[in-house]
Amino acid sequence: MQFSAITKALLIAVPALVLTACGATSDSSEGKSQTTNTEAEQAQTEGLDTQTGVVEVETLEVAKTPEELQQDAFDALRQQQTIYFDYDKSTVDSEFVALLEAHADYLTKNPAAKVMIEGHCDERGTPEYNIALGERRAKAIVQYLQSLGVSAEQMTTVSYGEEKPVDLSRTDAGFSKNRRAVLVY
Amino acid sequence: MNRLGLVFLSVICLVWSKPSLAKLEIVITEGVNTARPIAIVPFKYNGTAKLPFNFSEIVAADLMRSGKFSPIKVEDMPQLPNTDGDVDYSSWVSSGVEAILVGTIEDENLDRFTVKFELIDVLRGQITGGTVQALKNGRLVETKDHIMFERKVIIATSQFRYYGHRISDIVYEQLTGERGAFLTKVAYITIAYDDVYPYKLVVADYDGANEIELVKSPEPLMSPSWSPDGKKLAYVTFENSRSQVYIQDIYTGKRELLTSYDGINGAPKWSPDGKSLALVLSKDGNPELYLLQLSNKRLTRLTNNRAIDTEPSWSPDGQFVIFSSERGGKAQLYSVDLATKRVKRLTFDGDMNLGGSLTPDGKHLVMVNRTRGNYHIAKTELESGNFQVLTKTRLDESPSIAPNGSMIIYSTMHGSGQVLALVSIDGRFKARLPASKGQVKSPAWSPFLN
Question: Which residues of chain B does A161 touch, with a Cβ-Cβ cutoff of 8 Å?
């Protein structure tokens, strides 16, 4: 199945994050490096002071199911809304597959949700040709999301061509940031 | 409610006829040495009312900008004559000028000025000494055939700039045999990302004077195209998170929504007869060319191809539409015969050709050529197939040809900003029009306005 690769990655990555978090908590409870603590940790420490100070209470993380872990991963990935394209190309690069799967997951589970997909280009070529190229990029995303089960009714497209660059440097690095599709909810 | 909100938004984001202080200056980058020397002598003023400026400044600037003439400095003139009778021909020989424009301005009454001017052929004047006898109706009479043109008019203060360009038109046509394009305007888009309304549709005289912001919008504005009578502009907006084609009367500000289909509504181009627009819609799946009849809003589809078809422009006779298409792989220019719908490929040079348009005589195809990754303005002579790259600036796009076919205005990069630039149709004269603020792009040269 298409999700299996990410699921596997998450089964490793998420518990690792939980472990690091636990490590931080135990550091602060021992009173080390108080000045570098985060605000959340400070709040926790103050909470302890108002108590008798004799007993410390720790909790265990409830182990998440693979489904929950995947959902967490999707939620995180869905914060990313930009897909970049190669020069003069409108094909979806494999590195954005997971990102699009996360958006597809949300859209299929929330059929009332709507998304607008903006197509953008770099500043090379004429403005009018870039409008056509930007639309082709937006449509490539629509087709990809449709193949993942998203209804066509949930998606609209708009091509801004080269009119809304995010990087104005006109360097190769700038151009590659401007060749993009953006999912806007 | 939502729709009402959108309508309201589109109303508040439009501000008409607000003059701006910005002005397009000119920096000539190539071609001064090929221009013909000419003397525009300051007109002599007899009067007390304050003159807005002397015509000679406007005329000299116009002729210099045409790329064909190099007006000599006032301090290099051997004398400052005001009429043909004042001219000492022998003193002008060494100056190398071929013609002298002389004139006078007289203060009449209440904002009325009498303007007299003469355009004098220096070489002819030198040969004849200012007068020559010729047979007319069987009698020998004195003629002044070295005076190429003379005129006397009465104008108001408000007409000075207009009349200055009018004199330039006359001088240019007398000396080149080609109509002058000094009484024209240019529409363009300016972008200042920090502004509340970053995108502006601006119209100015061809020399950058009288700049007026016609539309201001928080969202992109694109592709201005002039009606053939010079009174309206068609353009593309994104103010409602979608592309829409509007036409707007530049004098009344009246705005009409033409198309708002799903997908692309873009690249409008007014037909030479003013009755229809060619434009691009992707409502049927991918970008295709359509004709929109303005009287009844009827659409006729012109192309039908799975590849991108865009950037229509009209042949001067209105029988063909030139366009860019990826039907052969990379984008190239094609034409479609409106009567037969037959499509013909026009360009074969370089990796890619875009944004094609024909010169007013129909003989040259001007385009944006991409060769080895560089975008430049180029032209092909249709009959011979001779191909010539005209510019060497960076990221050149949006060429628009002056109505007399002498010059192309286009957008290009200078430093880190987008500016407008000029190149003569033969590629010899090149100039830049530095922007005072922000980016300037998508220039569209108006038709003749006189």
Answer: 222
Q: Tell me B262's DSSP state.
A: S
Confirm or reject contact between A122 and chain B (CB < 8 A): no
Residue B315 backbone phi and psi in degrees, to 5: -70, 150
Largest CA distance in chain A: 73
Query: E-strand spans in B62-211?
Result: 69-71, 99-107, 113-121, 132-136, 139-143, 147-155, 185-191, 199-205
Q: What are phi and psi for residue B56, nearest 5 degrees?
A: -60, -30
Which chain A residues are Cβ-neighbours of B268 within 8 angstroms?
none
Chain-chain contact of A129 with B324 (C-beta, under 8 angstroms):
yes
Dist CA B220 CA A24 (whole Å): 49
Q: What is the mean pLDDT of residues A156-164?
A: 97
Six token digits for residue B155: 């104008």
Which residue type sits at A98? A
- Beta strand B44-46 with B99-107 is parallel
For chain B, report the end-to-end CA distance as a whole number of angstroms: 46
Element (H, E) at A133: helix A127-147
Percent of chain B, pLDDT > 70?
Answer: 93
Hunting for tokens 């900003």 — which residue is that? Answer: B417
Residue B11 above 60 pLDDT? no
Label the pairing between strands B113-121 and B36-40: unpaired
Q: Which two tokens stand for residue B387?
A: 């191909």
d(CA B174, CA B98): 12
Query: Does B241 contact A at CB distance below 8 Å?
Result: yes
Confidence of residue B434 (pLDDT cuts 50, 70, 90): confident
- In this structure, the number of other CB atoms found within 10 A of the CB of residue B409 comes to 22
Comparison of pLDDT for B84 and A43, the residue scoring more? B84
Highest mean predicted confidence (pLDDT) among A16-25, B92-101, B295-304: B295-304
User: So what's the ipTM on this one?
Assistant: 0.89
Is A32 part of the contact surface with chain B (CB cutoff 8 Å)? no
Asked if A126 lies within 8 A of B220 by C-beta distance, the reply is: no
What local confidence, expressed as pLDDT, does residue A5 receive?
53
Q: Which of A32-41, B77-86, B97-106, B288-297 has the lowest mean pLDDT?
A: A32-41
CB A145 within 8 A of CB A100: yes
- Residue corresponding to tokens 């004559």: B81
Query: Which of B264, B282, B354 is nearest residue A126 as measured by Cβ atoms?
Result: B354
Are the beta carbons of B47 and B112 closer than 8 angstroms?
Answer: no
Residues B272/B291, Cβ–Cβ less than 8 Å? no
Asked if B242 is an interface residue toward chain A (Cβ–Cβ < 8 A), one would say yes
- Spatial neighbors of B38 by CB under 8 A, at least 6 apart, are B63, B69, B70, B71, B72, B97, B98, B99, B100, B101, B171, B175
- Which residue in B187, B191, B246, B229 sits closest to B211, CA to CA? B187
pLDDT digits (tens, 9 = 90+) for B330-380: 999 999 999 999 999 999 989 999 999 999 999 999 999 999 999 999 999
What is the CA angle B119-B124-B129, rounded to 5?
Answer: 100
- Quick check: pTM over 0.90? no
Q: Where are the beta strands (DSSP E) in B185-273?
A: 185-191, 199-205, 212-217, 221-226, 232-237, 244-249, 255-259, 265-270
